[in-house]
Every structure is written in C-alpha cells, then in structure tokens.
Design goal:
The structure holds 2 protein chains of 2 kinds.
Chain A lengths: L3 E5 L8 H12 L3 E4 L6 H10 L4 E6 L4 H14 L6 E5 L3 H9 L4 E3 L5 H12 L4
Parallel strand pairs in A: 1-2, 1-3, 3-4, 4-5
Chain B lengths: L5 H11 L47 E2 L8 H13 L4 E5 L2 H4 L23 H7 L9 E5 L4 H14 L8 E4 L4 H7 L6 H18 L3 E2 L1 E4 L1 H5 L4 H21 L4 H4 L3 E7 L3 H22 L5 H4 L3 E5 L11 H15 L4 E3 L12 H16 L14 H24 L4 H10 L2 H19 L27 H16 L2 H15 L7 H9 L4 H12 L9
Parallel strand pairs in B: 1-9, 2-3, 3-4, 4-5, 6-7, 7-8, 8-9
Classes of the chains: A alpha/beta, B alpha/beta.
C-alpha cells in the first residue's frame, strides 16, 4: 500500500506555490496526496488527517506564524489520540527549528530542501529505521 | 496630428520637458543623446510606447523609490509614516496585516498569530484615525495594498479624511483593488468572483465620479509571477485582467477614456535580465495597441501603460543570504532599463524573515547606486534596437497574444467573461501551477543552477544574519484597542448601518460606497462589514487542483 500524505495550509497564509509543487513531487515518488485547500484550522487539519487515514501531515507555512500554528496542529491530533507525525515546510529560520521539534514537529524543511530530502524524510517517518 | 512623424513628436515633447541636469555625459565626459535609433524608428513618449511613456524619461525625473512598509498597530505605522514625510517623502505605501487583507477583525479566532505581523492591523475607523494622525491627506498620496476589502478600506479612508476636514475630491492615491489576481495567484479572496467584481465596479464608478486624483486599480502581475508563472504568462494574465476591468467599468456606464488613465500596473522583476526588459517593453506596446484599436480609446493617457516594479521575492535564497544583494541589484536594473515609473527593491533577508532595518536600507541603497552612480538613467530605452531584446520583445508579445486568444475563447469574445471563466475553470491556476512545477523540475535535475542552493555551497554553514523578530505583544495591544471601540460605540447606529449595507448589497444596481462610508462613520468594524456583505454575497471556497 502506498504512503498517504495530507498536505495542508493552516491559517490565513495564501502562498500555495510550494504546497502544490511538493504535492506533485510526493505523487511522483508514488505517494497518495490529499490537499484540503486554503484557510484550514488546526482542528480541520486534524479531522481530515484522521478521516483520510494518512501516514503523515505536511504543513506549508510562509507567513511567519509557524511557531503559533504548527504546535496547535500537533496538539489537535494528540487530543484525538492520533500519533500521525507532522512535518513543516516553508520559510522557517534555523533558530526556530529546535522550538518546532520541541513542540512535536517531526521534521522541518527550509527553503532549498531537495526532493530527495523531503521524500526520504517522509519515508523514514512511515517506516522507521530500527 | 495622426500623420506627425514619431521623431517630430518626440523632439517637440523632449524640447518642452524640464530636465534634471543641463547636460548628460558618461563618466569620461562623452556627451550622450536622450535616445538612440534611426530617425524613422520608434521613440519614447510616442505611440505605441515600446520605448517608454515619456519623451525625456528619467532625464526629467528618476523613478519613484517607493518602499512598502507597515507593521504592528496603527500608532507604530503612523510614527514610521511621519519619519518618511519628515525625510522628504511625498508618498506613503501601506502594508496591511493578513487578517485585515482577508477582512477579519483582530479578535477573530482565525487571526491568531497574524495580527500586525506582515503589516498594520486595521479594524475600524479608530485605527485609521491613528494611522494618519497629524498627516495632511490633501498633501500626500497614499497607496493601499489591499484587495478583497478594498472598498471598505477606501470607505474608512474617505470617512476619516472628511472628519479631519479634507474633502474626498482632494484625496490622491492608489488602491490595489485587483481582485482577479487573488483568485489566480495570491489567494486572498473572500467573496465569489462576480460579487467581488461588483465591489471593484463600485469603487471604479465612485472614484471616477467623486475622487478625480485617485487611481482605482493597480493591476498586478507581481503575485502571478511569484506564484510560479512564466514571464509571458505574467504579462498576458495581467494585461487581460486590465482589459477585464475596463470592460467592467464600461458595463457601469463609464467610457474607456474615463477609466484607463486611472489604472496602473505592477510587475515583477525576476532574474532573467533581458527577458524582463523585453516583458516591460512588450507590455507597453500591447496595452497601447489594444486600447487604441480594440477598445477605441482616443486619449493618449489611456494608451500609456504606467507601472511599478518589485524585485522577485522568489529569487531570493535563505542560503548565503548576502548573495541576494547581487540578485536584487540585477533585477532592479532590469526594471530601470525597462522604463519603470516606480520601484521597490527587496531586502537580502526576506527568504528568512521580514526585513531588518539594515537590510531594508541596503535595498534602498541599491536603487540609489543605480540612479546616481551608473548613469543608466541618462538615455531612454538604452537596449532598444538590440537584435536580441527586440526579438524577445516580439516573442513576449506573440505569446501574450495567443494567451489572449484562449481567454477570448473562454469568454465568448469578452475579456471580462474570459477572466472570470478562466478562474472558475482553473485555467489560470493550472497554467501557473504547471509552470512552477516545470521550473522546480529543472532545478531538481540540475539544469537550473541556483548559487548556494544546488551549487557553490561553500559558505552555507556561516552564521545567520541578524533577523527581525516579531513578538505577539502587538496582537494583544490591538485586541484591547478593538474591545474599547466595541464598548463605546452606539450599537443602534452599528445595527442600522449593517442593515443598510446588507439591503443595498442585495440590489446589484446600487453602488455600495455610500453605505460603506456611513458604516465606517458608525465605527462598524472591517470584519462586521465583510460579514454583512458575505451574508448576501456568500464566501468563495477554492476547489484546488494539484
């Protein structure tokens, strides 16, 4: 069975170039990709992730609100007893990566992350290397 | 007049123009002409304006170095505005925060984390009073970069100015108000396309009748390009949107010559130097030709495409960010050689954060170096006549024309219907997403080198720049300010203003501006006005295509 990924935009950030390109890269790598569109909330993302039974949630964040919103998505999933890993891609300063990881974000992809890095990181979250 | 030779017309206008300096020479003292080319060729300031819209171009006046700013609360931005004016600035350019751009109040749950972050937060006329406190709005032009709630922001601005005794007829400035590109690229939409276009129509008609110094729409390709389009797509989609607004205004009973001179354009300056210059040259030629031949404009000002340029945010890299100074300088130079009327240069740290003060200053210095050290502003259209640039200009025009033909097909002969239909059918969005994907493929294959990202990586592990950090303190301040407004205002007046707004929204023949201005005076918030309108108009939900 192929890996299923929900890619999502949370909050008011309308920049959707990156999420659409990454969605196609993941598809090219054989994954099934669900995109729920713009202006989602942490709750709608968590509900969609559980309903669609995805393996990973990928958030695309370019407005600077990642430290506020990304942890809320993790929290919304955990409140629903889901352990689906959450990754973040977009404009994230290096200084913020540790804070995001501390808040339960499994991986962060900054500007310039390659296709292989993104695909590889998602695969390793789905099939943890012992 | 029709038969006057381009050279004679140019020379008459050039001789009448005031010049910045008595003579123009190279660094080594060689006197240079205002423009070069064969006497029977094209000249700047003469139809079809491929070479520029003014006969003397930058010899009379350099482009406007318009730097976009706004942050935190209205009081913070007001202080910045007053600094700009004290330093001799004559134009203000307002950046709004994302909740304001989407018509949400600062206390809306969706606004969490975004208040005052990317611009100033405006919830009601109370904030507009603080934003322009002690600024004489009859003496300054104000540009407002806002789209979905553009009519509401205009209403707030007019109501506030009139409170301070400045009549609407004396207000000068520009509203971005380009809703079509929101559905196509920037994605800050609220209402469905047709209902949004009704608001654009109302602002165009209102400003044409009552605000003679106001530019009603800044037709923007910048965001289309940032979203991933090619140069030719940026050119074609932007001009098509411009044509659509003309047709919209015509439906409201306005003539092309009443509206066209009040439209301005906003283009991207990306990193492919010559392609960008060709794009600006083609834009002027296409606009002039279509306005004269297709839309029957007879006023020369209608034929002249005026544009603002901003360097490409997407060309900036987080890796070795100082390299972005070089990228921005090259892009800015393309804008200048392409004949832009105004220019914003991005800061080197913008792939990482909002610009620090130092990075923003370096960005402005880049323009000043181009303007005052390089002498490139001495000659109009210096690349005109280059076989390469002329061929690229023709190619840009041809690609744009074939995209126009597709849109005319979609719209059954109407560009207005073509643009709305193209949005509804995801035609624009698919074009842009496909071009973005192809560019990414080329990068991933290594066919496209980006210095510091997929090659020349030495230095990537150096320490980060000093970045601007924004806290959530402004958000709490703004929410408190808004609560005070809700507390003290007259609830009956608010209710009546909102009822009138909803009633008039239900009648498509009514111009909504008077009702919006009344609502602004009654201290109805931006979010409340948007909610009242959404009750009638509905809200747009994009069905995304991957």
């Amino acid at each position: 069975m192929s890996v299923r990924v929900l890619v999502a935009k949370v909050g008011l950030d309308g920049h959707d170039r990156g999420i659409k390109v990454v969605a196609r890269i993941l598809r090219d790598a054989g994954m099934e990709v669900v995109y729920t569109g713009l202006f989602q909330t942490p709750d709608t993302v968590a509900m969609a992730a559980i309903q669609e039974d995805v393996d990973v949630v990928g958030l695309s964040m370019l407005s600077g609100a990642h430290l506020t919103l990304a942890p809320l998505v993790v929290e919304a999933l955990r409140q629903r007893d889901s352990s689906i890993p959450v990754v973040v891609g977009g404009i994230v300063p290096n200084n913020d990566v540790a804070d995001l990881k501390a808040a339960g974000i499994a991986a962060v992809f900054g500007p310039g992350a390659t296709d292989d890095e993104i695909v590889g990181a998602i695969m390793s979250l789905v099939q943890p290397i012992e | 007049m029709e038969k006057e030779r381009a050279y004679d017309r140019w020379s008459r206008d050039y001789d009448a123009a005031a010049l910045r300096r008595p003579s123009f020479a190279t660094m080594s003292g060689i006197e240079v002409d205002p423009v070069y080319g064969p006497p029977d060729g094209e000249f700047p300031g003469v139809y079809p304006y491929t070479r520029g819209i003014h006969a003397s171009m930058y010899r009379t006046r350099l482009w406007t170095m318009r730097m976009f700013a706004g942050f935190g609360t209205a009081i913070d931005t007001n202080a910045r505005f007053r600094d700009i004016i004290a330093a001799g600035g004559t134009g203000l350019s307002t950046a709004f925060d994302m909740p304001t751009l989407l018509g949400l109040d600062s206390d809306d749950p969706m606004s969490l984390g975004e208040v005052g972050r990317c611009g100033v937060a405006i919830d009601s006329i109370d904030d507009v009073r603080d934003l322009f406190r002690e600024i004489d709005l009859s003496k300054i032009t104000t540009s407002m970069t806002i789209n979905s709630p553009a009519a509401i922001m205009l209403a707030l601005f007019v109501a506030q100015a009139e409170e301070t005794g400045v009549p609407r007829s004396r207000l000068g400035g520009t509203l971005q108000n380009d809703i079509l590109k929101e559905y196509q690229a920037q994605k800050e939409f609220v209402f469905p396309p047709r209902q949004s276009m009704r608001l654009v129509r109302d602002t165009i008609a209102f400003t044409a009748a009552e605000m003679p110094k106001w530019n009603s729409v800044s037709v923007s390709g910048y965001h289309i390009r940032e979203a991933g389009s090619t140069a030719a797509e940026e050119l074609a989609f932007t001009l098509a949107n411009g044509f659509a607004y003309l047709e919209l205004a015509r439906e409201a009973g306005l003539s092309v010559d009443q509206v066209a001179p009040r439209l301005s354009f906003f283009f991207n300056a990306h990193i492919d130097f010559f392609e960008e210059i060709a794009k600006y040259r083609a834009a002027r030629r296409i606009w002039a030709t279509w306005l004269r031949n297709h839309y029957g404009a007879t006023d020369e000002r209608s034929w002249q495409l005026r544009f603002h340029t901003q360097t490409a945010g997407v060309s900036l890299t987080a890796q070795q960010p100082e390299n972005n100074l070089a990228r921005t300088a090259i892009e800015a130079l393309a804008g200048v050689l392409g004949g832009t009327q105004s220019l914003h240069t991005n800061s080197m740290d913008e792939a990482l954060a909002l610009p620090s003060e130092k990075a923003a200053r370096l960005a402005l210095r880049t323009q000043q170096i181009i303007a005052h050290e390089t002498n490139v502003a001495n000659v109009a259209d210096p690349l005109g006549g280059s076989w390469y640039v002329e061929a690229l200009t023709d190619e840009m025009e041809q690609q744009a024309e074939s995209l126009f033909a597709e849109l005319m097909d979609i719209g059954g002969g109407s560009m207005l219907e073509g643009c709305i239909g193209g949005i509804e059918q995801n035609w624009f969005q698919s074009h842009i997403a496909e071009s973005a994907y192809q560019l990414e493929r080329a990068f991933n294959r290594g066919d496209r080198i980006i210095v510091g990202v997929n090659d020349f990586l030495d230095g990537n592990d150096e320490a980060d720049l000093e970045l601007l950090r924004i806290t959530n303190a402004d958000e709490r301040k703004q929410v408190t300010r808004l609560a005070a407004v809700r507390q003290r205002r007259d609830d009956d007046a608010v209710r009546r203003a909102r009822e009138r707004l909803a009633n008039e929204a239900a009648d498509p023949a009514t111009n909504l501006m008077p009702a919006l201005i009344d609502a602004a005076r009654a201290e109805v918030t931006v979010g409340e006005m948007m909610t009242s309108l959404a009750g009638v108009f509905g809200r747009y939900v994009e069905v995304p295509v991957l």
